[in-house]
Amino acid sequence: MPRILKLVFSVTLSAAILVTQFAYAAGTPAPKDAQVYFIWPQNGTVIHGGKFWVRMGLRNMGVAPKGVTLPNTGHHHLLIDTDLPPLDEPIPSDRNHLHFGAGETEARIELPPGKHTLQLLLGDQDHKPHDPPVYSKKITVIVR
Questions:
Q1: What is the span of the domain harbouring residue 37?
Q2: Which of 105, 120, 125, 133 has the greatest count of CB atoms below 10 A from its CB?
Q3: pLDDT tens across 81-121, in order?
Q4: Using CA atoms, how far apart are residues 9 and 74, in angstroms rounded to an integer?
């Protein structure tokens, strides 16, 4: 292979790798006007007994289970008493980051007495936040 072709091939291959890595790092595209929000509870709600239903809403996108690759879709993650995770990595799965990978839009949860924060974060088929990330305002609930 002539030297100039090797150089062109090398530059083209390097650019393709860089574009692929950038596209992956950026996350699955989301419409700029997409919104995830709480239907219930609302900010400041007092919950008696600890068990309650969380109802999650989504505008300008659709809900799809984990592993399903469709444009403008994702699934809910509920963040409890924590801040947003790194938005360029998969969302953790632990007691502070609940995954609703079957496409659920409501869930019954239980929290101990006290003041708690809740926030929603939409994840793509691989549990990664979208680009731009789609997350709700953080709300506070009080469990008695």
A1: 29-143
A2: 120
A3: 999 999 999 999 999 999 999 999 999 999 999 999 999 99
A4: 37
CA-CA distance, 47 to 108, in Å (whole number)? 13
Between CA 68 and CA 128 the distance in angstroms is 13
In a domain, 13, yes or no: no
Per-residue pLDDT reduced to its tens digit, 9-65: 343 334 443 333 343 456 899 999 999 999 999 999 999 999 999 999 999 999 999
Inside any domain, residue 7: no
- DSSP code of 41? S
Q: List, in sequence order, every residue forming a beta bridge with 101; answer none if it has no partner.
A: none
CA-angle at 124, arms to 119 and 127, nearest 5°: 70
Would residue 108 count as lying in a domain?
yes
SS3 95: coil
Q: How far is the C-alpha of 4 from the C-alpha of 56, rounded, in Å?
A: 57
Contact in structure between 49 and 8 (CB atoms under 8 Å): no
CATH code, domain with 118 = 2.60.40.10
Rounded Cα gap, residues 65 and 73, in angstroms: 9
Residue 43: inside a domain: yes
